[in-house]
Design goal:
Chain A is an alpha/beta fold and 468 residues long. Chain A has helices at residues 6-13, 39-47, 78-94, 109-116, 147-156, 181-192, 207-210, 214-222, 238-244, 253-263, 314-327, 353-363, 382-390, 393-400, 449-458; strands at 15-18, 24-27, 30-33, 58-60, 97-98, 124-127, 141-144, 158-161, 165-172, 200-205, 231-233, 276-281, 288-290, 298-300, 342-345, 374-377, 403-404, 425-428, 443-446. Classes of the chains: A alpha/beta (468), B alpha/beta (215).
Chain lengths: 468, 215
């Protein structure tokens, strides 16, 4: 019999019951809550007169709507304020731990969870947010759910699931200097397409993935959903275990020893069989930039934009034509021809300390171009912000002309005041370049933090390797 | 949830691939703390020529006459015909809430994104996967016949065209059961409360740190 994949092992360890109709009841170890997808779930509990099954398995923080400017006053936008207030009220009423807006531990849920050790290897982790796959970087089974399922987990600590298929994405060899986790995952999505991972749990492996820091692995897993897969994961190694030492909610003493013994098993067996295997060569991956309105519409910085006439799939070609029109670009152009009106460094994909360091390294001693209206740096959490300030990164950014902000989701989806104007191009370290995502009529180009900083100081997209 | 009954309804074609949840319901409308009222903002950026704001009266907004749902022949549509990877992107359940609030009861496409597909069933919206060639054929038939309707029979797992042709579709037996009976699956899961407690006791013995309280 073939060995087991990491996903198989995580699934089996959380199987409460297999049901006759082919579904299974899967136990959920941790739920993360934020203000956008939880109010209707709490309301559902109240209407049905149900209590949470395990209150202390949940942790909450507001992130999508919070202002990234001064927070001493109230949130100006009334609907945003009500939504954040509703989360505060629900957590207070039910007794769920929440890092409120004035707490230094507040931030983007997917940055806060690991930072606090609230999400750990071997756990099942859910959140009403599709970027929950981020936590798979630690050898956990983590995925986004809808609000009905948020309510289901609150009420039962379980989900009704069907097992997904197994996909292995192996990135062989090493990537070159200046090529980051973001470039790796964009190259993967360009290869498999935005629906390539639908129905699969993806395990990312290979030398290039192993060489990444935990922050880098989070960036890769974060965007599994952009490849269609709800869950992405990476096997546990020494780096994973090291990451959790001393985190506030990580186990200590005997429990720590017990935990690391179990965590060390969280890898696919050598003879495990995958339903699909995709391989990439690290050395072929260049710094990536998205040109279109889907995360699969990506080119290497030195490549020409593709021609829809050369695309044999007519539905795909039509999508490309629509994207060119929306983005106001033409086939054959190069991304170095494009001026970003705004630059956004942040989001659950790229707002951790390592991301800020990479961007600061490029910004240091340079100035944001006059062509760029605004360059924002939004740390992923209050603690990331504090760490960056201790390292003096805030000063580096401010001296270069970047704005240094308070933590939150910010311009990734523009639910707060940070947004693109109609027709503006943005060099963004976020995860989605859909129409209108960063603001009505806004045009997003997904890049790594170093590439975003390079575009900011150059006044156009540029290969960051040419700057150093 | 209401029971999913057999119905016959006008089909509206949305001829583009990878329709994402930001397109189905843009983020500014996600600030609502309710489950209802999203219908007027379904496909907001495609339907109107201006930028929509939450809580706004949409009846006076400039309409995009080219958008399919604004065309007179598709008024009252309850079946949405779509292309591959429908519902990709975020996990917002506001997407199926907006579709059902507008009046859609079924979306037919060659493929759906996983989270959207799952969310639809929780809200009485039936996503039907058909082969690309069949979907292509339906697009042609809808374009050529004003008032084109499909009958959707979930119990029989069958769609009937105006000419009387039937098209079979697959559906997960558990989800079918829940839709037909209008069941609340939290109630069903709680019937297994003993199994959940037994799992917890066993797991706690071998991995106690997983039960440390967040406090």
């Amino acid at each position: 019999m073939a060995g087991k994949t990491l996903y198989d092992k995580l699934w089996e360890a959380h199987l409460v019951k297999e049901r006759e109709d082919g579904t299974a009841l899967i136990y959920i170890d941790r739920q993360l809550l934020h203000e956008v997808t939880s109010p209707q779930a709490f309301e559902g509990l109240r209407l049905a007169n149900r209590q949470p099954w395990r209150l202390d398995a949940n942790i909450a923080t507001p992130d999508h709507n919070v202002p990234t400017t001064d927070r001493s006053g109230v949130i100006e936008d009334e609907v945003s304020r009500i939504q954040v207030q509703t989360l505060d009220d629900n957590c207070d009423d039910f007794g769920i731990v929440e890092f409120k807006m004035d707490d230094i531990r507040q931030g983007i849920v997917h940055v806060v969870g690991p930072e606090q050790g609230a999400t750990l290897p071997g756990m099942t982790i859910v959140c009403g947010d599709s970027h929950t796959a981020t936590h798979g970087a630690f050898g956990a089974l983590a995925h986004g759910i809808g609000t009905s399922e948020v309510e289901h987990v609150l009420a039962t600590q379980c989900l009704i699931q069907k097992k997904m298929k197994n996909m292995l994405i192996r990135v062989n060899g090493q990537v070159g200097p200046g090529v980051t986790a973001k470039d790796i995952v964009l190259a993967i999505i360009a290869k498999i397409g935005t629906a390539g991972g639908t129905g699969f749990a993806i395990e990312f492996a290979g030398e290039a993935i192993e060489a990444l820091s935990m922050e880098g692995r989070m960036t890769v897993c974060n965007m599994a959903i952009e490849g269609g897969a709800r869950a992405g994961m990476v096997a546990v190694d020494e780096k994973t275990i090291e990451y959790f030492k001393g985190r506030p909610y990580a186990p200590t003493g005997d429990a720590w020893d017990l935990a690391i013994a179990e965590w060390s098993q969280l890898k696919s067996d050598a003879d495990a069989e995958f339903d699909e295997v995709v391989e990439l060569d690290g050395k072929d991956i260049q710094p990536q930039v998205s040109w279109g309105t889907s995360p699969e519409m990506v080119v290497g910085i030195d490549e020409q934009l593709p021609d829809p006439e050369q695309e044999s799939d007519s539905v795909k070609a039509e999508g490309m034509r629509r994207a060119y029109e929306y983005m106001d670009l033409k086939p054959g152009m190069r991304m170095s021809d494009v001026v970003p009106d705004r630059v956004f460094i942040g989001s659950c994909t790229n707002s951790r300390i390592e991301d800020l360091r990479a961007a600061a390294e490029v910004a240091k001693g340079r100035k944001v171009s006059d062509k760029v209206k605004q360059a924002l740096v939004v740390p992923g959490s209050g603690l990331v912000k504090q760490q960056a300030e201790q390292e003096g990164l805030d000063k580096v950014f401010e001296e270069a002309g970047f704005e240094w902000r308070e933590p939150g989701c910010s311009m990734c989806l523009a639910m707060n005041a940070d947004k693109l104007g109609d027709g503006e191009h943005c060099a963004s370290t976020s995860n989605r370049n859909f129409e209108g995502r960063q603001g009505y009529g806004g045009r997003t180009h997904l890049v790594s933090p170093a590439m975003a900083a390079a575009a900011a100081v150059s006044g156009h997209f540029v290969d960051v390797r040419e700057l150093s | 949830m209401e029971k999913f009954e057999t119905f016959e309804g006008i089909v509206a074609p949305l001829d583009r691939a990878n329709v994402d949840t930001d397109l189905i319901i843009p983020k500014q409308f996600l600030k609502s703390i309710k489950r209802t009222g999203f219908g007027p903002n379904l496909f907001d950026e495609l339907r109107y020529l201006d930028e929509g704001q939450p809580g706004q009266d949409c009846s006076n907004r400039p309409i995009n006459p080219d958008f399919v749902l604004n065309q007179p022949r598709y008024q009252g549509a309850s079946v949405l015909l779509a292309r591959v990877n429908f519902g990709c992107g975020s996990s917002r359940e506001h997407a199926p809430w907006a579709l059902t609030d507008f009046g859609f009861r079924t979306v037919i496409a060659p493929s759906f994104a996983d989270i959207f597909f799952n969310n639809s069933f929780k809200n009485g919206l039936l996503p039907i996967v058909l082969e690309e060639e069949i979907v292509d054929k339906l697009f042609k038939e809808v374009a050529g016949n004003e008032g084109y309707q499909l009958k959707v029979d979930l119990a029989a797992q069958e769609i009937t065209t105006p000419s009387g042709d039937t098209i079979a579709f697959d559906v997960d037996p558990f989800r079918k059961h829940c839709l037909l009976e209008g069941l609340d699956d939290i109630g069903l899961t709680l019937q297994d409360a003993d199994a959940i407690r037994a799992y917890e006791a066993k797991r706690r013995a071998s991995a106690p740190w997983l039960f440390d309280a967040i406090k």
